[in-house]
Amino acid sequence: MRVDLHTHSSASDGTDTPADLVREAKAAGLDVVALTDHDATSGWAEAQEAADEVGITLVPGLEISTKLQHRGVHLLAYLPDPTYGPLVDVLGRILAGRSERTPAIVAALRAHGIDLTEDDVHREANGSVAAGRPHVADALVRLGVVADRTEAFATLLSPGQPGYVNRYAPQLEEMIPIVVAAGGVPVIAHPWGRRGGTVLTEEAFASLKGLGLAGIEVDHQDHGPELRTRLRAIAADLDLVATGSSDHHGLGKVDHDLGVNTTDPEQYERLVGMARQQA
């Protein structure tokens, strides 16, 4: 069984529609794929219809933007009830913050001498529930300002760069219990990529487990062999699920092909079992 538990569609910042993503997952030889768009569940229905058509198991999920000690941390939430009131409320606040930030980013980049408009960004965000930094990056690529999303983030859109603008994100310690109360299974995404290791220590993982954290995404392209070994040991010590995934974004990210990392079937069954117990 081949299981990929972290992918994105055009409902957030991927380039494939939810249905096309699922079909590509089947073509890539996956048996299970999770759709985990940023802060949004709007792609679930389309993805499920495609999964039923091609014969692949879909795990509905999302990747929630949170903060821990003023650092951004992404929380994967698998199989939550998308109608649970507190979850709906916080996702609405996150998406509103994302939408409100876009004009400020465009203004900052224009002040930096880049001839970018909000219309340029919204054209790239076609199908997404909210325009965000990846869509700004895509607009910059289309305008020839940068070569790809990686360069856009590295030189213009990350903290400390000319186009960075802060936005609302809930505290991780508050978000984990909300996911659990919604019947979902919370897993920290790529914890030691993007400087996350500075706050996500073993002690922090232990504390977060006490709040309901169920797992750690270990096998991810942001983690080299040494980091994966250390994270797997932490997961084992704390009895947390250890997952693996591609973090696929279609053409939005290179070297993140579907199935490039996968989750051990036993770990996947543990995760699904947790969701059943909380349902």
Q: What are the salient characteristics of this protein?
A:
279 residues, TIM Barrel, DNA polymerase, domain 1, 43% helix, globular
Q: Mind sketching the topology for me?
A:
Layout: E1 3-4, H1 18-27, E2 32-38, H2 44-54, E3 57-68, E4 71-78, H3 85-111, H4 118-124, H5 133-142, H6 149-157, H7 172-181, E5 185-188, H8 202-210, E6 215-219, H9 225-238, E7 241-244, H10 265-278
Parallel strand pairs: 1-2, 2-3, 5-6, 6-7
Antiparallel strand pairs: 3-4, 4-5
Helix pairs in contact: 1-2, 4-5, 5-6
Q: How would you describe this structure to a colleague?
A:
This protein is of the alpha/beta class and 279 residues long. It folds into two domains: 3-91 and 168-278, TIM Barrel, CATH 3.20.20.140; 100-157, Orthogonal Bundle (DNA polymerase, domain 1), CATH 1.10.150.650. Helices cover 43% and strands 15% of the residues. It has ten helices and seven strands. Strands 1-2-3-4-5-6-7 form a seven-stranded mixed β-sheet. Helix 9 (225-238) links the parallel strand 6 and strand 7 (241-244). The relative contact order is 0.16.
